[in-house]
Amino acid sequence: MTWLDMQPRDSVLFISFGSGGALSAEQITELACGLEMSLQRFIWVVRKPFEDAAAARTFFSVGAEHNNFAEYFPDGFLSRIKE
User: Mean pLDDT in runs of 10 for the chain (83 residues)?
Assistant: First the structure.
């Protein structure tokens, strides 16, 4: 990742909830807003949000289908955080 190589050492957060981690759409929005307001550099591994708590507890509940991840973020989020 060229972008990461250009950042000062120890200045980038890596956010990932692992293969079993699941957030709701509301939680993704809240985390996105918090990251944006922090002004901290970050790399965030985002998965499709789960619709209900039961699905969130299922380890392999997300299929391999392609999703437009941008639809899960607040409007304009990607353009505002782009460096």
Answer: 93 90 88 96 88 54 60 89 82
